[in-house]
């Protein structure tokens, strides 16, 4: 886990005393938490602290649940308190954007996360749990109208009006959808390696990288293919079985390491096509789009293909900040509402 306290975190004279806002961007593999002061007009103020730790997703995380997220929140709260030299209790209004916290699982996720954060001094009334789509959109849109294309551990496209979702495509989890996501790409990479080793698919440079990532040897010529314990395919089965789906996404970068490999190029081309298809499903005349997620920010080939398709559709791409800043913007709105009530 990494943490950071602002080098000069003492609250400014313009900050609302006794009140701070916390935003969190929580994916399946990583959680980012930031705390800021709140300005007198509801604007975001000084960065007080930040922390990162393991993520949480009810659909794909392992047995530890939100423990890593709770640790990151605790670390940020302690850093903010120590850095600002606070003596009096401070109220923290928090918004956590969590992957997998859409309507199907929202009540469950909200109950679990609020209960986990309560011992940290965060009462349920001050903790808002939202789907990770909303902070990602808020990080790029100033007026709340337009589209979001999310390509991260999961994937979805959403059309917003007034920062409220009015139409959504995908975000249904790895079993039913999330096509074009990091998990989807990682699974395609795994399957390509399995097909290569099994002889039911073409040879691909992806295989050696997959085996190395999983700590397995590349089979030598004439190695056993009889299903015995010396057969590398059995090792692959054993290595993959315990992996949570979120871990598959860590294999996604393997595809972009091999730009000359036909299988890798095909996987990335299909990923881009799947993402763009979601945009087409929800657009309905929208003119602006926010792009978010690791696939669109860290995979140059997928990003290039997606942006070219969006340009052909005359969609203006809004360059978004980190989703955690979108969560902070939403927390500031809620804190301002609390002050008025």
TrEMBL record:
Example of a GO MF term: kinase activity
Coiled coil: none
Keywords from the named record: Kinase, Transferase
Domain ATPase BadF/BadG/BcrA/BcrD type: start-end pairs: 22-312
Name of the protein: N-acetylglucosamine kinase
InterPro entries: ATPase_BadF, ATPase_NBD, Euk-type_GlcNAc_Kinase
Pfam families: BcrAD_BadFG (PF01869)
